[in-house]
Amino acid sequence: MKKKMKIMFLVALILPVYAEKLNVAPMEQLNIAAGFGYDIDKELNGNVKYSIPFSIYDFKKKGKEGARSNAEKEEITEQGSSDIKAKANTIGETREERQLNSSKPIIIGTEKIAIIGEEAAKYGIKDIINILFTNAKTNDRGIFSICKGKAEDILSFKVEGYPSSADYMGGIIGNAIDYNFLSNNYTLLNIYVALESEGENLVIPYLKIKDEKIALNGMALFKGEKMAYVLPMDEGKIMNMLREKKGKGILSLQEEPAKYINYDAMVKRKVKCNKKEGKYEFNIELDFKGDIINNTLYKDMKKENESEFEEDMEKKIEKMCYGFLDKMKNVYKIDCLNLGMVAAAKYGRETGVDWNQEVSNADIKVIVKVKIDKIGIGQY
After folding, report:
1. Residue 16 lies in a domain
2. Alpha helices, DSSP H only, in 51-164?
3. What is the 3-state secondary structure (H, E, C) of 190-255?
4. What is the pLDDT of residue 341?
5. Does 294 score more than 70 pLDDT?
6. Are strands 31-42 and 113-117 parallel, antiparallel or unpaired?
7. Least trusted range by pLDDT, from 30-44, 54-68, 256-270
8. Which residues are paired to 260 by β-bridges?
9. Which residues pair with 56 in a beta bridge?
10. Host domain of residue 289
11. Are residues 219 and 267 in the same domain?
12. Domain holding 313: CATH number?
C-alpha cells in the first residue's frame, strides 16, 4: 500500500511538469499547416525576395441542436483553410515575418504537400530543400510538386469538398502511382538524396489550374537544382516507364475510333551498362505484365492467340521509347533516366564526368517484353 502511495505521489508531482513542457493546446488555438509554398519575386536591382505562403486549417466549433450541455453543443467541428503569407530577403527570415502576422503558434509536419512556384524552381531549389531538411519538425516524407505560376495562387484556390487545395493536390499526386507509371518518390527525403547523388537528375510532378480545376499536367525536369523543362504528360509517361524501377499504367493500341485495345500493366525495369572504346552503352529491359481491360480491335482474342497482341504492343512501346530517347539526347540533352548513376556505380564516382553529356552521346538500346495476365470476362 505504501509503495502504491509513493508511486501516485511521484506521478502527481511529475505530471504537471511534463504537461507544461508538452504545451498541449486545443487545435483551435494552433495554426496547423495544410500545405506551404515557395515563390520568388525578382527585383530590378537583381535581388530576390522569397515569398512563402502557408495554407492553414481553420477549425470552428459548430453548435449542435438539442444539446443539453456546453460540451455537447461544441461537439461538431467545421474545417476550412486560410492563408498566411510572408516575404523576406532569405528563407529563414520569412519564419520571423510569418509569426508577426499570426496570433497562434504554427505547427508543421502535418502538411499534405509543398508547392514550389515555377520561377522559384527555375531559380534553384537547393536552399529550400536544405533548410527544410535541417528542421527536425519537418515531415521528410512530405510530397513535393512544382506548379505553373505562383504557389500562392494554387494554395489559395478553393476546391469544393476539400478543406484546402493542399489536401486535394496531395491526393492527386499520392494516387497518381496507379497510372502514367509515376513513382512515389517525390518526397523531401528523396529530393534531398537526389540533389546530392552523382548521375541523378530530379523529376517532380507539375500541377496547374486548368479549366477551373487543379490537374497534374506534366513532369518538371531538373538539371542539377534548377528546373530546365516541363515535359507534357504523354512524354512524362514514357520517361517514367524508362526511368523508374517499377510502375503502373495503361497502354493502348488503336486503329480507328471504334477499334482499340487497352492494356493495364505493371512494368519492371532493369539496366545494364558497358563501356567500349570510351563510349557508354546501356541496355534497358522493360518487362510488362498486365490485363486486357477493353478490346474492340482483336476478334476472338483467346489465350492461345494472344501473342499477336503482345508482339504489336512490344513494337508500339519500342517506337515510343526510341522517339523519347531521340528527344532526350538531342533536345533536352539531360540524363532524364538516371543512367549516369548506373554507370557511376560500375565505373567509379567523382571522376569529373559530365553524365548528361555522356548519356546524350551513349548508345541506348531498349528491349521490351509484353505478357498478358488476364484477358477479361467479356469479349468483342
Report:
1. no
2. 70-73, 91-100, 118-123, 126-133, 151-155
3. HHHHHHHCCCCCCEEEEEEEECCEEEEEEEEEEECCEEEEEEEHHHHHHHHHHHCCEEEEEEEEEE
4. 95
5. yes
6. parallel
7. 54-68
8. 254
9. 33, 82
10. 245-380
11. no
12. 3.30.300.210
Question: How far is residue 51's CA from residue 152's CA, in Å, rounded to a whole number?
Answer: 8
Alpha-carbon gap, residue 269 to 67, rounded angstroms: 60
Domain shared by 223 and 153, yes or no: yes
DSSP annotation of 329: I
Residues 215 and 322 in one domain: no
Of 243, 278, 310, the residue at which a domain comes to its end is: 243
* Nearest to 293, CA basis, from 377, 175, 167: 377
- Of 5-19, 120-134, 215-229, 330-344, the poorest mean pLDDT is in 5-19
Distance CA(103)–CA(70), nearest Å, equals 26
Give the full edge-to-edge strand order of the sheet including 363-372. 246-256, 259-276, 279-295, 363-372
Residues 186 and 266 in one domain: no
DSSP-assigned states of every residue in 71-83: HHHT-EEEEEEEE
pTM: 0.85
Q: Which of 243, 260, 287 is the last residue of a domain?
A: 243
For residue 318, how many C-alpha atoms fall within 13 Å in the half-sphere facing its CB?
15
Angle 196-201-207 from CA coordinates, rounded to 5° = 115
Residue 363 lies in a domain: yes
Q: How many domains does the chain have?
A: 2
Both 174 and 263 in one domain: the answer is no
**Does 208 reside within a domain?**
yes
- What pLDDT, in 10s, does the model give residues 128-174? 999 998 888 888 888 999 999 999 999 999 999 899 999 999 999 98
Within-domain flag for 22: no
Q: What is the pLDDT of residues 320-345, one digit of tens each?
A: 999 999 999 999 999 999 999 999 99
